[in-house]
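Thread: Newbie trying to understand structure tokens

Hi all, I'm a second-year student working on a class project, and my supervisor (Dr. K.) asked me to get a predicted structure for one chain before our next meeting. I've only ever worked with sequences, so writing a 3D structure as a token string is new to me. If someone could post the tokens and maybe explain what I'm looking at, I'd be very grateful. Here's the chain:
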Amino acid sequence: MNNLSLIKHEIKRLVFNKKYFYMSLILILSTSDKLLRLVIHGEYGTAPFSKWSYSNFTTLISPLLITILILLSTNVFSEKEIKARKIIYSTPITQTKYYTIKAASIFIAYLTTLFIPIIISFIYYGVLFKFYNYASFIKPIIYFLIPSFILFLGLCMIVGKMSLKLLYALIPFAFLNGLNFKFPVWIDLYGNNFLLNYGYTVWKDNTTGIVPYNIPMDFMISRAIFVLFGIILFVITCKKSETI
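---
Reply by user tm_fold:
Sure, no problem. This is what the structure looks like when written as tokens:
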């Protein structure tokens, strides 16, 4: 079995089961609710299909998406998987290769999951507002969804390696970060506090009636740090020896 075949096998294990089906169903219902109840009003006087409104949408769905990521990661550290790992490590597959395959599988499974709310939002904008310029949403997706995902993927790997119970404990942590505590950007994992503080300031001080989508450099740097930190955590997971 080559690496690609192993990854395909892992992806099938992650997504072709009742657990993933129910997670996807909850995500569909939650996404639809947020679009119809919250996003439809727009953000800071802008249209529901503005970049600011879509950025807000990404922060609203982030806690549930990250929770799904955590639950996907639990498959790597279940008792059944740990027993299988004893056999796997007796083969030419190294620890680094093992975790790389697992992380790559979770990465692809999560991206597949991420397409669910994105596609629903595209349908929503097309049907209700006849808005089809979906390319304008690329920046909000990159700025607000990708950094937290990479950070949590690395965090899930290193925490799960320490304890499965600790990995489950990340779920309330994921939801708590979706609340607006006026966190600075450096610990604002989803960017919701940033939108609340900075977005309001831009809207309040604006005199033209148009709220420009300008993201400050400190926020961009914080997202880059999240990505870097997530990668570092994953590398540590691969390199740190474990006793099975």
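A couple of things are worth pointing out once you decode it. The chain has one domain: 3-239. The radius of gyration is 19 Å. Feel free to ask follow-ups in this thread.
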